[in-house]
Amino acid sequence: xxxxxxxxxxxxxxxxxxxxxxxxxxxxxxxxxxxxxxxxxxxxxxxxxxxxxxxxxxx
Length: 59
Prior knowledge:
By secondary structure, this protein is mainly beta. It has one domain. The protein has 1 helix and 2 strands; from the N terminus they run E-E-H. The chain is elongated, with a radius of gyration of 17 Å.
């Protein structure tokens, strides 16, 4: 059902100071350390939303 969601941004709800959004994993083909080879890796996008008042020390 949610297979097509790769990443998203979560919305902070008071009194939260930050929230972590974890997207779905996907496999990618990337060059290997050897010259003429490729390898498959699994990547995942992670986004953290923070209340800037807490990060900047205004609260």
